[in-house]
Structures are given as structure tokens and as C-alpha cells.
Design goal:
The structure holds two protein chains of two kinds. Chain A is an alpha/beta fold. Chain A has helices spanning 54-61, 104-114, 124-131, 146-158, 176-191, 203-209, 227-232, 244-251, 277-286, 300-312; strands at 13-24, 28-39, 43-47, 69-74, 77-78, 89-92, 164-168, 195-200, 212-217, 220-226, 236-241, 257-263, 266-271, 291-296. In chain A, helix 3 (124-131) packs antiparallel against helix 4 (146-158). Classes of the chains: A alpha/beta, B mainly alpha.
Chain lengths: 313, 279
């Protein structure tokens, strides 16, 4: 069993995945000895290609699937079906789903009460603000659009003022406007102090929204850590400068620049670390070379593909 | 349990389909009564008195037998399908909506949820059975009156039953049929947990009934097996109306049904507690 690697060394561990495995039937190993932890206040993206085992992992964390081996812990307690700790979690797994012949409001209330909680304890105002359904909240859910359902699903997630949000591909099937709203919502909830764990294969989304990320592939842990550190491992920078020849000569003299290549109309630098970008730009400007663009080339997508490829080979 | 039961009941009773089903089980006995009133059947021949036709003949004598005739005809097939729908949809329907995972990621025990769902399915099935009898009762009394049964020489000799006895027999018959159908509900319910497809689970319940009826009709099947089939004593209540005889077979039937319900629901609970929720 792998020792769980904290994504950041300090803080209270709220989610602990330890040596978690799930085998379906005799052949398919959906999750394979997966370990990572999530600290309070982090916004963690669970990244991986389709079929990487993200959903299976999150379902085990919520007590929906029994692990074949290992444990998924919430607040230090191993999760089982019906665990009390689930009160402190709000989750959206795959699409939001409801009882179609009941209204949005009835669905919220029944789901809440069925869990054994009192309706007056629900954070209905916050939920309704998120759902933003107006009078449609009293219409049957089967008349809702996909976006309306997803908003109602997020509203249901927030009813219990959750300490952890578990969201499985929350922007799937939404239009760009709705996607942005969901991302903003995640940020707002995180800013209010909640921990967020969400899976996605939209890398830009993780990059924009998350503080930390776990990359997995074929059920296994590939890499984890802060988004900056995942992007930052041996990055490359694209520069647009006024005098390419002069810049090329100058930059080659810097010890942390491992290579300089021309990529019309500018230059691409391979750097050992990112801290020196400002120094490079300053040196160029001091030498009378104009700098138009400094662009980090190694986005999470490259990092992610690189990590998965490295890991597979 | 109580809030859970209330929510599950509301889910079932706010559904259009439930009312369509209730409307059907009310409508058919009414139509039967109108048909029998318009064109009364003749006395049945020897050995035919136990069939629905015999009951319809008695029903022309007093409206109090009409509900029994309706129950006999409906429990032979339509009620079986209806109660299988209630049992088969209970869990698989929720899985098909995708709502099951949202219920089960809450801090509620799976066993309690399952128990509540079964109870609601049973209640709906029993309500459907009672509605058949009530509709037959109202229509029968309007068409043929509320009075004693007096038939001259039906089988061997003249035959009578007081109105009070008939009403008592109706009560027993309703409870007995509702309970006997519970085995079908339980079997559909088991498949509702095993699969995520409600239609499959409904077919399972109907299939159990049909298979049991067929096996029961084959004389070469050993009686030891036939006697424990879930449908073997299914119609033993009819004697109350055709022969004024409360058969002890009903106790056997009720006991066998109990055994089936316990086994099917127990198996469903065993599986559900371990089930990976992938829907």
C-alpha cells in the first residue's frame, strides 16, 4: 500500500484516500491502490482521462461503492453506507437527478427530509439563490432544461451548508455561460471556507478553479500537488521580442535557461524554474530589446499529458 | 422511519401513474357490473361454480357477490401485473431516474430505506385490491341490491347466505387476496433491487405468477411441490361464496405467502446492503 501523500503539508486532513482499490468482476480494476489526501480549504481537481476511475473513486468516498481494498475516509472516519459524516458533505455525481414528477421545491424538501433532517434547518435561501429558478422552482422537474437541473442539483448540494463539496464533472453538458457560473460558484463556496474536491477532464477548468490537483490514469495516482507546482515542473516560455537575434544571444548566457529555440515570430525558452522570468524580461529591456509577450507554454494540459505519458512508459 | 415513510408515500401518491392504475381497478368492476346487468349469465353447470362465471351468476342474485366476482376475475391476471408494477418500480424506478445515488449518499441506512420502499409498494398493491372490491361493492349493490343470497338448487340443493355473512366473507377475501399478491410484490421487489430496469422487475413478478400457475396445472408435478407453489391456494377463498365454506386452505396459503415474502425481501435486503450503486 502506498503511503498517502499530502498535497500540502499543513492543515487538517478532511479527505483521506488510502490504498483504495475497486475491482469490478474479475477483470476490471477501476481504481488501483490510489492514495491522496485533501486538506481543509483546498480546492482539489481530480484529473484524468475518461475511464481513469475518477467517478468510482468519488462514489467510494460517498459510500455508494464498497472498496475492494483500502479505505476512503472523511474527517478521519472510514466511510460506509449511511455514515454520519455524509451530513457534512454535499455531492453531485455525474448529472443531477431528481424525482421527475415532483417540483423542484418538493424534490429539495423530500431529499432533505428523507435524510433525517428537519426542513427548517436547511439553508434554503442560499440554495434558492444558486438555483435561480424563479417561479420554475414549483414546476415539475421533468419540464426543466439540463442547465436548470444542474443548478437545482447544486442548490441541493448547498442545502446542508456542507464542509466538503464533492462534484463529479459538474460542468458536463452545460453551455459556456452555465459552465462559467458553476466555476464561479465553486470559487465562492471555496472562498467561504469549504473544501472542494471535483473531478474533471476539462483541464482549463481545473487550472482556473483549483488550488491543487491529483492526476490519475487507469485507476492509479500519477501526480499530485499544487496546480502551480504541477504546471511548473520544467516549464517553457514563449517570448515575443523586437530583436530576435539579439535576444537569442543574450538569453543563451543565462544559467537557468537550458535552451533557446526560434519559433516564428518569437522565441521559446526552456527554463529550470519560473522564478527567473521577471529577471529575464528585465535583462532584455535593459539591453534595449522590446518585449511584447511573455507566455507560459506549459499549461496544465501539457503537464497532464506529459505526466500521463511518462507514467504509462 | 416515519418521515421516510411519509416522503416515500408522497412520491408514490403524487404520481399520475398511480391514479391511472387506481382508475383502472375501479373502472373494470363497474364495467363488469354493467355488462352482467345488461346480459345476466345463466346458472353454471356442475363443477363450474368456482369459476368467475359461477360468481357472476350468484352476483345477479345479490349485489354483495359482485365484488367477489370482480376480485376473482381481476386477481387472475390484471391485479398481478398491477402489484408487480408497484413492487418492480420501487427501487429500479429510482435508479432509472438517477435519484437513487442521491438518496444513498445521505446518512440513512439502506435497510431502512429498503423496508420503507417495500412497505409503500405493499400499501399501493393493497389499496388497488381494496379498490376492486369497493368498486364492485358499490356497483353491485346499485345494480342488484343489498340483501341475502338465495339461489334455488345451484349445485345439489338450494343455497343461501345472509347479507352479514357475505360482507364478512368479502372482508376475509379482500385481505386474503391482498396478502397472497404480496408474494408477487416481494418477488418483483427483489428484482427491482437486483437490476436497475423496472420493466424487467415487473416481468419477473408476472413471470413468477405465470410459472407457478402452469406448474400447478400439471398433474405430473409432484403434489409436494405443487402444494408449496405461491399460487396453489390462490383461489381457495372462492369457496366462501360458492359453498359458504371457509376453507382451512387459506391458512396454508397465507403461511406459504409469508414464507415467500420473508425469503424474497430478505434476499433483497441482503443484496442491497452490499450493492455497488452504479446507477
Amino acid at each position: 500500500m502506498t503511503i498517502a501523500q499530502p498535497l500540502a503539508p499543513s492543515g487538517e486532513t478532511v479527505v483521506e484516500i488510502a490504498g483504495l482499490s475497486k475491482r469490478f468482476g474479475s477483470a476490471v480494476l477501476a481504481v488501483d491502490d490510489l492514495s491522496f489526501t485533501v486538506e481543509r480549504g483546498q480546492v482539489v481537481g481530480l484529473l484524468g482521462p475518461n475511464g481513469a476511475g475518477k467517478t468510482t473513486c468519488l462514489r467510494m468516498l460517498l459510500g455508494l461503492i464498497r472498496p475492494t481494498a483500502g479505505e476512503a475516509k472523511l474527517f478521519g472516519t472510514t466511510v460506509r453506507p449511511g455514515s454520519r459524516e455524509l451530513f457534512r458533505v454535499g455531492a453531485l455525481i455525474e448529472s443531477a437527478a431528481f424525482v421527475p414528477h415532483l417540483s423542484g421545491m418538493q424534490n429539495l424538501r423530500m431529499w432533505w427530509e428523507e435524510g433525517g433532517a428537519k426542513w427548517r434547518d436547511a439553508d434554503l435561501d442560499a440554495a434558492l439563490a444558486i438555483a435561480d429558478l424563479g417561479d420554475a422552482i414549483d414546476r415539475k422537474v421533468k419540464t426543466y432544461s439540463q442547465g436548470m437541473r444542474q443548478r437545482l442539483g447544486l442548490a441541493r448540494v448547498l442545502l446542508g451548508r456542507p464542509e466538503i463539496l464533492v462534484l463529479d464533472e459538474p460542468t458536463n453538458g452545460l453551455d459556456p455561460q452555465e459552465m462559467r457560473e458553476v466555476r464561479q460558484l465553486v470559487r465562492r463556496v471555496a472562498d467561504a471556507g469549504a473544501t472542494v474536491l471535483f473531478s474533471s477532464h476539462v483541464l482549463a477548468e481545473v487550472e482556473q478553479t483549483c488550488t491543487h490537483a491529483v492526476v490519475m490514469d487507469r485507476g492509479r495516482f500519477v501526480a499530485g500537488g499544487s496546480v502551480a507546482s504541477l504546471i511548473g515542473t520544467s516549464g517553457s516560455v514563449y517570448l515575443d521580442v523586437s530583436d530576435v537575434d539579439a535576444a537569442e544571444r543574450l538569453l543563451a548566457t543565462f544559467p537557468n535557461v537550458t535552451s533557446v529555440t526560434r519559433e516564428s515570430p518569437g522565441l521559446v525558452l526552456e527554463l529550470e524554474d519560473h522564478g527567473s522570468r521577471a529577471a529575464l524580461v528585465k535583462a532584455l529591456v535593459d539591453a534595449g530589446i522590446g518585449v511584447d509577450t511573455v507566455m507560459l507554454r506549459r499549461r496544465l494540459e501539457d503537464a497532464f499529458l506529459g505526466l500521463v505519458e511518462d507514467w504509462r512508459s | 422511519m416515519i418521515p421516510l415513510l411519509r416522503v416515500e408515500l408522497v412520491k408514490a401518491l403524487k404520481r399520475m401513474r398511480t391514479y391511472v392504475i387506481f382508475l383502472i381497478v375501479i373502472g373494470i368492476p363497474v364495467i363488469m357490473t354493467i355488462a352482467v346487468h345488461a346480459n345476466p349469465p345463466g346458472a353454471p353447470g356442475r363443477g363450474e361454480s368456482g369459476r368467475a362465471g359461477g360468481l357472476f351468476y350468484l352476483a345477479t342474485n345479490t349485489g354483495l357477490v359482485m365484488p367477489a366476482a370482480a376480485l376473482r376475475l381481476m386477481s387472475g391476471f390484471l391485479l398481478v401485473i398491477i402489484v408487480a408494477v408497484f413492487g418492480g418500480d420501487a427501487v429500479a424506478g429510482e435508479a432509472t431516474w438517477g435519484n437513487l445515488r442521491y438518496l444513498l449518499m445521505r446518512p440513512i441506512s439502506r435497510g431502512r430505506l429498503l423496508g420503507t420502499k417495500f412497505l409503500v409498494a405493499l400499501l399501493c398493491a393493497w389499496i388497488a385490491t381494496v379498490l376492486v372490491v369497493l368498486a364492485g361493492f358499490v356497483a353491485g349493490v346499485i345494480a342488484f341490491g343489498y340483501h341475502d343470497l338465495n339461489v334455488p338448487g345451484l349445485i345439489f340443493s338450494s343455497y343461501s347466505q345472509s347479507a352479514g355473512t357475505l360482507v364478512g366473507h368479502l372482508g376475509i377475501a379482500t385481505a386474503y387476496v391482498a396478502w397472497s399478491l404480496s408474494a408477487v410484490v416481494a418477488f418483483s421487489f427483489l428484482f427491482s433491487v437486483l437490476t436497475d430496469a423496472p420493466t424487467g422487475a415487473v416481468f419477473a413478478g408476472v413471470g413468477l405468477y405465470i410459472t407457478s400457475t402452469i406448474l400447478d396445472a400439471i398433474d405430473s408435478v409432484p403434489s409436494g411441490i405443487r402444494n408449496i407453489l405461491p399460487t396453489h391456494y390462490f383461489d381457495s377463498w372462492v369457496d366462501m361464496f360458492t359453498q359458504n365454506h371457509v376453507s382451512t386452505d387459506m391458512w396454508k396459503g397465507a403461511g406459504i405467502t409469508l414464507a415467500y415474502v420473508v425469503v424474497f425481501v430478505g434476499a433483497a435486503a441482503w443484496h442491497f446492503r452490499r450493492k455497488d450503486i452504479l446507477s
